[in-house]
Design brief:
Blueprint lengths: L12 E7 L2 E7 L1 H6 L15 H7 L20 H7 L7 H4 L4 H9 L14 H21 L3 H17 L8
């Protein structure tokens, strides 16, 4: 695919922007990506920050300078973690604590584990888990002062709790 800017060289950077349900694509070669400073049409742009993509766009890129985080226990750098895909020791989690949440959000869509209901779980377990999540949603709605929606969620919680053997009181 040719670069959208110069129409001469092969595109190596692909930028996708979704706004109001409309998708806009921008394909750039390494030279145009390097020159491109005005992303005004792509204001809320999140470009993946990964050495693999940097090396594609900038072939002479050698990696980060000495200012990148390093684990004090095993000496692993973030670049090494990025290349290997696994940490060197348990202390790496603390050493790279600033880099982990954005990475998880990029991979999973959020950085907080919300659990998973087993496929073979009993109906009671599924209902109890659903009630727990609805309670969290209810708290959020009340904080946001969305009381009409909160009342509907509250009613749904009460109806589900009546289905539980202990009335939903055994959490």
């Amino acid at each position: 695919m040719l670069c959208d800017a110069c129409k001469k060289r092969e595109a190596v950077v692909h930028i996708v922007k979704i706004e109001n349900g409309r998708r806009t694509d921008l394909h750039l070669c390494a030279a145009c990506a390097k020159k491109q400073t005005n992303f005004s049409n792509f204001r809320d742009l999140n470009i993946i920050d990964n050495d693999f993509f940097r090396k594609m766009a900038y072939p002479d890129y050698q990696g980060r300078s000495g200012d990148e985080p390093r684990c004090a226990s095993c000496g692993m750098t973030y670049s090494e973690f990025n290349r290997l895909g696994k940490f060197g020791c348990p202390d790496c989690y603390e050493a790279f604590k600033e880099e982990i949440p954005p990475l998880l959000r990029r991979i999973h869509g959020h950085s907080k584990h919300v659990g998973k209901v087993p496929n073979r779980g009993t109906g009671v377990f599924r209902t109890a888990t659903h009630v727990k999540r609805l309670h969290q949603h209810l708290q959020k709605l009340v904080q946001e002062e969305r009381y009409e929606e909160a009342a509907k969620v509250r009613d749904e919680i009460r109806a589900l709790q009546r289905q539980l053997p202990d009335g939903g009181k055994g959490e």
